[in-house]
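Need a sequence for this fold. Nothing fancy.
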C-alpha cells in the first residue's frame, strides 16, 4: 500500500500546477497524488501535458490517480467543464476523459453522485434532499449515465469508481455495481462520508471492501447538536473513525490499494463559507424516511460510536466543535514555514503519521517511510 493525498486538499495545488504539485508531494514525504479529474491535470486533455505528468510521477516514484467527475445528470449544469470538453456532448466529454486517463495508465477513475453545498445547513446542503427531483430519480439518472459509459470503460480497461460521497449510501453503490458490472465499476471508499448517512464506518468498510479500488482517508468529529448531529473534518486519528480496524479490512481485500488523505483544505486555498456547520438531521422524519436501508443494528452501533466519542470530547481529550472551528488552517509563506507556522502541513503530517502507525501495528507494508516526512 502507498500513502498519498487528494490533490484538491494539497496546499497550493492550483497555484503550483500538476508538475510542481508532484514535487510538493514528494517533499512532504507522501507516496502519490489523487487528482479529482483528469481535467485537473490538463484542462484540454493535451496528450503532451498528460504524458509529462505521467513521466514526472514515475520519475519521483509516485502513484498517479485521477477521475472523471460528477456523473449525476441533474448536476451537469454545476460542472460545465464536462460538457465543454465534449464540445457540448456530456457523454462524449466523459468518454474523452476516460480515454485520456487510460492513455497515461490511470485506469482507476473516481466518479461522484453529487455536489455538497456547505453554504446551506442541514439536509438541503445535500443533493439527496433536492426538492426539484427525488433521490430515486437521481439514482436512475446516474445508472443510465454509467450504463452509457460502461462500454467505454471496458474498452479501455477502466473501472469507474463511485465514491461513498455525502449523498449516497454504500447500499446504493453496491446496487449500482450489480446493475452496471463489477468488471467496469468499483468504489472509492471515503472513510468518513458515510457518517453523514448514519453508516458505521466499520460496517461500511466490510460491505464495500471487495470493490474498493481507490480511497479518501478522512476522519471527523460527530456529536449531538441542535437539529441532530454536527459533522466536522478532523486530522486522521483524532476523530471518530476506527482506522485500526478499517485499514486491515481494506488491505486484506486489496493489498495494493493506494491510501489518499483527504484533509481539511487550507483556508487560503479554499476560504470557508458563511455557514460552516454540517448538520446530520438524524432525528428528522424526512431525513429518516430518506434512508430505507438503515437498519436498527447499525444505527444502534453508530449512535454508540457517537456517544463514546462525545465522552472523549467531554473529558477534554478531543476539542469540541466551536474550539476547533476557531482554528485557522492556512498555508504559510516560505518565511513562515521556516518557523514551523504551517497548520495545513501539520494536519497532513499528523494524519499521515497515524496511518503509518496503524499499518506498522497491523503488519501492513506501507511504502512511505516516516523519516522522509519528518525531514521535509
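Here you go.
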Amino acid at each position: 500500500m502507498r500513502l498519498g493525498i487528494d490533490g484538491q486538499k494539497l496546499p497550493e495545488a492550483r497555484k503550483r500546477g500538476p508538475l510542481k504539485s508532484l514535487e510538493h508531494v514528494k517533499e512532504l514525504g507522501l507516496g502519490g497524488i489523487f487528482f479529482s479529474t483528469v481535467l485537473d491535470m490538463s484542462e484540454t486533455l493535451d496528450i503532451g501535458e498528460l504524458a509529462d505528468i505521467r513521466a514526472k510521477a514515475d520519475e519521483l516514484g509516485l502513484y498517479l490517480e485521477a477521475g472523471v467527475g460528477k456523473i449525476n445528470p441533474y448536476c451537469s449544469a454545476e460542472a460545465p467543464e464536462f460538457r465543454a470538453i465534449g464540445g457540448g456532448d456530456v457523454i462524449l466529454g466523459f468518454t474523452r476523459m476516460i480515454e485520456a486517463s487510460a492513455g497515461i495508465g490511470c485506469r482507476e477513475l473516481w466518479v461522484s453522485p453529487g455536489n455538497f453545498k456547505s453554504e446551506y445547513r442541514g439536509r438541503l446542503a445535500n443533493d439527496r434532499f433536492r426538492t426539484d427531483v427525488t433521490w430515486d430519480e437521481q439514482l436512475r439518472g446516474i445508472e443510465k449515465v454509467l450504463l452509457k459509459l460502461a462500454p467505454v470503460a471496458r474498452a479501455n480497461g477502466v473501472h469507474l469508481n463511485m465514491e461513498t460521497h455525502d449523498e449516497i449510501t454504500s447500499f446504493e453503490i453496491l446496487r449500482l455495481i450489480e446493475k452496471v458490472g463489477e468488471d467496469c465499476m468499483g468504489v472509492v471508499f471515503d472513510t468518513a462520508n458515510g457518517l453523514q448517512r448514519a453508516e458505521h464506518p466499520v460496517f461500511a468498510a466490510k460491505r464495500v471492501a471487495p470493490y474498493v479500488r481507490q480511497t479518501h482517508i478522512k476522519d471527523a468529529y460527530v456529536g449531538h447538536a441542535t437539529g441532530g448531529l454536527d459533522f466536522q473534518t478532523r486530522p486522521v486519528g483524532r476523530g471518530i473513525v476506527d482506522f485500526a480496524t478499517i485499514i486491515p479490512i481494506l488491505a486484506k481485500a486489496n493489498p495494493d490499494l493506494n491510501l489518499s488523505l483527504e484533509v481539511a483544505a487550507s483556508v487560503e486555498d479554499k476560504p470557508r463559507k458563511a455557514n460552516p456547520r454540517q448538520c446530520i438531521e438524524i432525528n428528522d422524519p424526512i431525513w429518516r424516511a430518506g434512508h430505507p436501508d438503515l437498519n436498527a443494528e447499525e444505527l444502534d452501533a453508530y449512535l454508540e460510536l457517537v456517544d463514546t466519542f462525545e465522552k472523549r470530547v467531554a473529558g477534554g481529550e478531543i476539542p469540541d466543535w466551536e474550539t476547533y472551528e476557531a482554528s485557522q488552517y492556512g498555508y504559510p509563506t516560505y518565511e513562515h514555514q521556516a518557523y514551523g507556522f504551517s497548520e495545513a502541513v501539520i494536519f497532513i503530517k499528523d494524519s499521515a503519521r497515524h496511518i503509518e502507525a496503524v499499518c506498522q501495528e497491523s503488519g501492513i507494508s506501507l511504502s512511505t517511510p516516516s523519516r522522509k516526512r519528518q525531514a521535509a
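For context: Residues 333-341, 369-376 have pLDDT under 50 and may be disordered.
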